[in-house]
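SEQUENCE WITH STRUCTURE:
===
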Amino acid sequence: MADFDPIDRARKAVSDRAELPGMSLMEHLEELRKRIINSAIFLFVGMVIGWIFRVRLYGIIKKPLDDLHLDLYFNHPTDALNLYLKTALVGGAIIASPFILYQVWLFISPGMYANEKKYVWPFMTATVGLFLCGAFFGYHYVLENAVRVLVFDFGKGLHPLLTIDEYTGFFLSIILGLGICFELPILIFFLSLFGIVDAKFLLRNFRYAIMVIFIVAATICPMQDPFSMCLFASPMLFLYFFGVAIAWYVHPNRRKRKEAPAV
């Protein structure tokens, strides 16, 4: 049996999809423009809702500092306004994410077979759910511990002066970074759905995947000690092997064998 070649599989997948009803370049651009406009409208509506609840959202952001009895300061007149705008934007993006993801799905769905379009609701549910799980993990298990270690351990004997701008950037890097990292199974899902990778390929190259995961963990981790890096990397390793199971289930070869009539 020949070794699995992701490049050959990708070419075959593109060749197979060439048989689907095509769209001209202008039709693709028009469809893309429509989806971008719709997504922008949903994001704006979500941001308005986020602005209405900006004080509550700010309370959520500041709670880890309150638990550690730390205060925030600002050194520019616009810092407080920027804080509320960022809070409303991120909160609005989370609120609007299901609708924006649906626009993404509507854009890519014309290039998919009918039996692949059934994944729309699992895709949307899993994408939003995994992002929220990553954000929850970062907020409850990483953020407060990171601040405690950086401020009270490494900064022992010093007087911390946390500014709004620096803390919100630190907060978003952890929450958004882990939220995006938790989307790894979704990436594997699409690569497998289009026949570019399969479960055997992912298992055979898991050593390289571990190396990449730890590089990503070292990049987004605000602390440089090995324990903290492992704390970031461990859920991604679990999600990688969860993605292997997804790849085994959705790969075209397995679906063809499953759908083939018995002889």
